[in-house]
Amino acid sequence: MRPHSLTYYCSTIIGALIIGIVVLGGDSAADELRFASAFTSSMVLQRDAPLVVTGRGPANCEVEVTLGAQQVNSQVDANGGWRVEFAPLPAGGPVTMTASDGSDNSVILEDILIGDVWVFSGQSNMQMGLQEADGGAEAIAAATSDMPIRVLSVPKATAKTPQSEIGAEWKHCTPQSLPKLSAVAWFFAHHLRQAPELQAVPLGLVDSSFGGTAIEGWTPEGTLPNIDKSQLSGSLFGIQAAHLYNRMIVPLTVYKVKGVVWYQGESNAGSPTVYAKLLQNMIAQWRRVWQQPELPFLIVELPAFEGRMKGLDFSWLREAQAEACRQTVNAWLAVTFDTTNGFDLHPREKDEIGRRLALLARGEVYGEDIVAQGPKFETAMAVNDQIVVTFDQTLETSDAAVRGFAIAGTDGEYRYADATIEGRQATLSASGVPSPVSVRYAWGAMPVANLIGVCGLPAAPFRTDDQPPQSHAFEPLPTFYRIEMQTYALETGRGGSVASLIVGGKQFLSNESDGGTSIPSMFGARNLAYSHLIGPRRFSLADSSASLELACDDSAMTWIVTNGGNDPIELHISLAAAVEVEVRGDQTSAELSRDGTKLTIDGIARVDGDRKLVANIPPHDTAQLHWTFSEPK
């Protein structure tokens, strides 16, 4: 599987640096009257549910706590803890909450809203900040503090034992508080508020996500199901099982929430046969500690991706996610395999995922009378040389031909099927499969499938066979581009690279696996997966925060490298073995020659070894490389 890009892990790395160094654990001095760290000004408390509030104070003293018009008294126990419970409140606010010990000591929390609190957890695709997603910049610019949405971003850290401190405060929505908030969380809230009956309900968005992490790290210690150790997965940075749960989930369980959105599975994709059990178990454990046995869970299906984990593509993990939802009450899967082209592990198209999650919430959690999911498989019946598949709703297609089905006979060898649809049924046949016995739909790393329901949502992937996981299939490649000028020809390649530069009939770039251009990160080369034609002789390769723009003229070209991130990056250009390099003057210019063909490049920072040119790009800056070609002899 292609390594993760650096952008989505900047804050993850910072979090990793404090692992084993700083753990916010134990409670501070018990003689100081205070609320538990989960309760801060500007927070959102869950509506229509008993409101439990906890805190610390001098042992054995009396504490009077008020919330709006309600007042409850409690006694601090011998360990310095206190707990009160208020009657449920309807959506509204703001209200004030005060704790007092009868003397001059009091603590006041202001600007509290009563609404729905949603927790968003998982790994890098949940962590991906709003500033990195398509439409994110516009959403950030439009944010105002009077929006009835509040956000809480849990710091990325771990702990060996369950903790009580969060280390963060609730914030209003502003251009300052939203850039790093989970894009999925924001777009979910945006679309959820489109429901007329929810527009007046304040929302609390809790972002508790950590890139590169496996589900084992989010599961309470000692509660993993009985699974062979070889099937368990590990997180980046050596994070152990339960350590994320201890630090990033336990402090949140002091108050009720409306539901959880879970977007994770990439790190477990190499062991899909056990993931359904792991996910079901984690859901059960979170419901237990939250004391909400029917707490809703919305699961994000992994989208299309060309890569592999232990030789397996994501179709098998998608199956495990769907199975966990089938076996778990109040758990639903948002189908997303079709939301991106599959060439980027961290796709920027998070708006549509948020919309589909919001539809699920509106239909399944809030009980709105809408179609919230696409067609689901019900039955398959073989009739001579055909299979008739029945779904739970009327079928349509996004264009003329029906695509995405494959059928197999007793040999288990699948062939893509011709299909016709009528009502809720699809009738399938394939040349070379005279007696079909099984069917698959939207299966593979990057499914090409177009079955939808009347609501426009895609049909969910499924299979009727029980073959063990294997991933041996032809898959599409990214679109490559080529330009031919009078003196040179250039081609792009996989991972958003410049893979070929031919001058005078000579190849100047290395064709090794690490050849051509690359922007290294600690997880491997970044993937500039988003290609864009700017003009007839201008082209851009980009990810969420870096881009390489190519401007080509007959005898020269300019490469503009932009770094929109917070860390410096380098552009590496690996040259073919036959190329000779002569560094000039101040080391920022070099002459490249091969068999009498010469060209010059200006703007480099250094030459590594014999044949790797390096350009440095500081944070939020650009660098330009100017290439000049001689007329071919």
CATH architecture of the largest domain: 3-Layer(aba) Sandwich
Main sheet summary: 11 strands, mixed
CATH C-level category of the largest domain: Alpha Beta
Q: What is the third-level CATH name, the topology of the largest domain?
A: Rossmann fold
Looking at CATH, the homologous superfamily of the largest domain is: SGNH hydrolase
Apparent shape: globular
Strand portion, in percent?
Answer: 25-35%
Mean pLDDT: 92
| Range of helix content | 10-25%
How many separate structural domains?
A: 4
Distance between the termini: 44 Å
Show unreliable segments. 1-29
What's the alpha carbon Rg, rounded to whole Å? Answer: 28 Å
**Strand tally, please?**
42
Helix count?
A: 8
**Which structural class do the helices and strands define?**
mainly beta
Offer a few descriptive terms:
mainly beta, Immunoglobulin-like, 633 residues, disordered N terminus, Rossmann fold, single chain, 11-stranded mixed β-sheet, globular, 42 strands
Task: Describe the protein in words.
The structure is a single chain. This protein is mainly beta and about 625 residues long. It folds into four domains: about 35-110, Immunoglobulin-like; about 115-365, 3-Layer(aba) Sandwich (Rossmann fold), CATH 3.40.50; about 375-465, no CATH class; about 480-630, putative glycoside hydrolase family protein from bacillus halodurans (Beta-galactosidase, Chain A, domain 5, Distorted Sandwich), CATH 2.70.98. Helix content is about 15%, strand content about 35%. Strands 2, 4, 5, 7, 8, 9, 10, 11, 12, 13 and 14 form an eleven-stranded mixed beta sheet that branches. An eight-stranded antiparallel beta sheet has the order 32-33-34-35-42-39-38-37, with no helix packed on it. Helix 4 (about 185-190) packs across helix 8 (about 350-365) and helix 6 packs across helix 7. The longest helix is centred in the middle third of the chain and has 19 residues, at about 270-290. The radius of gyration is 28 Å and the shape is globular. The two termini are about 45 Å apart.
